[in-house]
Description:
By secondary structure, the protein is mainly α. It has helices spanning 19-36, 46-60, 63-67, 76-85, 91-98, 102-112, 126-147, 157-180, 188-197, 200-212, 222-242, 247-255, 263-282, 291-294, 299-310; strands at residues 41-42, 218-219. The chain is globular.
Amino acid sequence: MLGADKAPALDATEPPAGEAAHDLAVQVDAAYYRWLTASAGYDATPEVEEHLLDLVRTLALDPGAASGLVPRIPELIPELLRDLADDAVSQGTLARSVERDTVLVAEVIREANSAYYRPLQPIKSLDAALLMLGQNGLRMLLARIAFRPLLRMADTGFARHAAPLVWHQAEKCALASSLMAPGLAAGVFEAYLAGLMQNLGLLVAFRLAERAAEAGKIPGSSEFGARLFAVSRGLSASIAAHWEFPPAVVQAIESAGTPGASALARALERGDQIAKLHVLIDAHVVAEDDSLVTDGLNSFERRCLGKLADVRA
């Protein structure tokens, strides 16, 4: 995982990909949805598809009910994130907060010893680990830990199959969005948080689909997938607002990919597409020299794609 303190020196002065970026988004979303639903997709009627989308839209209007369908974030994590939001917080205060949870201590030390940070000598103390990660590195680690229970949110059916796949893409999206953020004058941690959060509505939508459609299945058409991605982002934004996420993060999730979107939303949109491409390359659905990569991404975005291969969450 990359912290802002360790952000790579990539040149973000290149212009965005423009029309190529839009074409990439359409094609990559279609390929990603087909891959994701390959084991359970079926040809649903337009009426069934519209009914499922309406269920997601309706749930987005009731964020309390929607958030009740997913595990709650552990109380310690928001408390630590609030501490980290204070630039004046001391290293000792952070250490005392983290050391209250032995599992969290182990996670922090493991992260500091990871292949990305590459310490000259093994790090064994919490204080040394916190120094290595820095504030943004710790923020991102805590956010990732907080979202891990989502992997256990579904017990059966397609949602259970999809959860780890969607989570893997979300981790990559968070990282890619945080890499894109500095060149777009967006907040690095906010981009990371938006990347983790934006797919939460998709997992909830899969659970709803299982109940309303054929047992264990989901409509498999690319057109339905594109619409589902759009309405599930609205659901993700609704849950994020209910959980009192920063307003800029909520707005970015809701508006990513739309004209006139904020810098944070643009970082999220590009990070999401780059992460999906990375997943498809790993799954041997798309080749590294495919036109989706060579023509659809500018050189900065291709370097970002390479960073996702270098760093494993």
